[in-house]
UniProtKB/TrEMBL annotation, chains A, B:
Keyword Transcription attached: yes
GO terms for MF: DNA binding; DNA-binding transcription factor activity
PROSITE patterns to which the protein is assigned, alphabetical: HTH_MERR_2 (PS50937)
Source domain of life: Bacteria
Name of the protein in question: MerR family transcriptional regulator
Domain HTH merR-type positions: 2-71
Alphabetic keyword roster: DNA-binding, Repressor, Transcription, Transcription regulation
Organism: Cohnella xylanilytica
Signal peptide: none
InterPro entries in UniProt: DNA-bd_dom_put_sf, MerR-type_HTH_dom, MerR_fam
Amino acid sequence: MAYTMKEVAERTGASPHTLRFYEKEGVLPIPDRDANGVRIFNEHYIDCVDTVQALRSTGLPLAEIKQYVELYKSGEQTLPLRRTMLVVQKNKVEDQIARLIKTLEKLNYKLALVDAQESQFSKLP
Amino acid sequence: MAYTMKEVAERTGASPHTLRFYEKEGVLPIPDRDANGVRIFNEHYIDCVDTVQALRSTGLPLAEIKQYVELYKSGEQTLPLRRTMLVVQKNKVEDQIARLIKTLEKLNYKLALVDAQESQFSKLP
DNA sequence: TGGAGGGCTAGAGTTACTCTAACTTATTTT
DNA sequence: AAAATAAGTTAGAGTAACTCTAGCCCTCCA
């Protein structure tokens, strides 16, 4: 039930550096410490990291994630606002996916061009 | 056939700042200037910007884009290497799309949770 | 007991912008 | 004609989000 820094890093894919940095920036809770001042994490902490990572991977800045986390901490009356934030992010992610698909098409086009040029090149006398 | 900084910025979506920065970093060609030292751009320049943006949007660092551009400048013998770079980026983009779809699912899940809590909340006496 | 392994903090370095200051030039507006 | 507006120029500072370094502490196992 208790995890070390290294375990949390492994389970979330974030580096210990990044985890400490997120904590310092206030987007992650302040974990308990053992007698030597070493952080002790629990299952819930890993959920928090997952959420922050999901929000970050959509490009949401840490400052806004912090806002979201603070809304979460201040209870149910912030649910409508949090809902709005989630919907906004959802739309952004859909846009990003659309944009990446366009990029993929562009890359495929460039690959086709390169292949055409390559075969022409190899046909030279 | 000739464009100003502002027009290039509008047509590519990159800010003039960013365009000058890219030029300084060597990922864009050095454009001609008019008598007042003002940059004059052409159609081909816009293609270059598009390509850089497509590569950047896949997360390719400017340093590697610069390498690609230099390979391009040094002619046909670099085609196989450029082809490899494109394939690598294509795979990365596919990965990114897959990851974003997962994030989208997570967001939908969180939205469903929030909606459930919200309706529960509104049912309170 | 000593060395590997992990953790801690403070702070420097990196990437890719992004903005500011201070200035010139060109075009409108009064 | 003078003034305001808009666009351009450079050099360089600032920012976000890591990412790494230095220097130290603690513990565990051979």
